[in-house]
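Researcher: Last one for today. Full complex below.
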Amino acid sequence: MSLPATAVMRLILRRELKLSFRRPDQLVQPLVFFLIVATLFPLAMNPQLPVLRQIAPGVLWVGALLSSLLAVEGMFRGDADDGTLEQMVLSGHGLSLIVTAKTLAHWLISGVALVLVSPLMATALNVPSSAFALIMAGLALGTLTLSWLGAIGAALTVGLKRGSVMLSLIVLPLAMPLLIFGASATDRAITGDSVAGPMYLLGALCLFTTSLAPFAAAAALRITLE
Amino acid sequence: MNWTWFHRLASPPHVYRLATRLAPWLYAGAALGIAYGLIAGLFFAPPDYQQGDAFRIIYVHAPSAWLSLSAYTTMALAGAVALVWRIKIGYAVAAACAPIGASFTIGALITGSLWGRPMWGTYWAWDPRLTSELILLFLYFGIISLRQAFDDPARGDRAAAVLGLVGVVNVPIIHYSVQWWNSLHQGATLAKWAKPSMPGSMLVPLLSVLLGFMLFFGAVLCTRLRAEVLVRERQSNWINEMVSIP
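Model: Here's the assembly. Have a good evening.
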């Protein structure tokens, strides 16, 4: 009870990271899913190199969106099933603090991995390597925003039987603005234009969700857990 | 200042009676406003100098689009009131709003695409207005199905209210994002219609239909709210007293 906020966050962060690295399949599955989704587009469309370069931003961002959705589903489920989440709620530490730590851990595992893999996929889509740094920066901001939106969705659906369909129904509309800015930033990075505008907006969305989503997700958890 | 009338709005029996009393008046006003506006707009307003008679669909389209947004705002506000002050009737209002708002959104989308066909040559364009309206429809669907997904209706209500509030934060973001997004890709298809300066003979019918639609929204809200209250309060004494045959 007397633990300071930073210690609580550090403990939860460490616990979440340890748990995920003990189950590496959960770490790898969303990544493989991302690679498969990104592979589907060239197969379904005209795989000519200039065309691929044109669709690359959309493919990368839709892939990131879907794989983040897949990864976020289990964010609260395991802890809700074995009662850990209830103990966290009862612990007396702010629930939004706990949600923040869990979301950051989730992003460190799934988001960062996706960002690291993205140059591989970008190469396959004929994106020039000069754009990689900007694409990764944009995806880093984007995946964190997605983790926050996903945390709200996962918190709202944690008690539901068919939660995964519900989760996508909730999160996808909320993520559409992010998709627009993200794809536009990546598009500009590939064509060599200035990415400042959409990148600032990605940063703004990221800060906005970081500041408000913990409270929304905590409120949602309180509702679904009681 | 006496605030009893305000506090009584939290009481389901009072709201039920109020909605029962108000609904006929609202329906009558809606019928008048819509009838006058449509007759004046469809038959007596002059044709547009560019669009001819095709512009007349604005008399259904613009009020639907406007109501689709204000129904969302009403729903989110009712949900917020219910969450913050734990006033249960707010959930009933929010639950009653959602299908109406979704219907207005569908109406706006359909009339818009019918209008788009002769004007733009296509039923659908990935234009900011159209896209944001479509996202609004998805938000409505998410909120409606989240409410129904819970076995316990009280939890469904609260979860839907939280999602409604999260979505309301998103509405201006949606609006501006698609504006900027569009400006990157294609020229402004809508620019010449951005500020339709209308003569009075076109504008007055439009405002009349708009008022009629607002009253219609209120009327349908009253009807749906009565049904919601009946379902939610079915265990309570006042309903048993009301429906029991002596």
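Helices of chain B lie at 4-7, 12-44, 58-85, 88-120, 128-149, 153-185, 200-232, 237-243. The radius of gyration of chain B is 20 Å.
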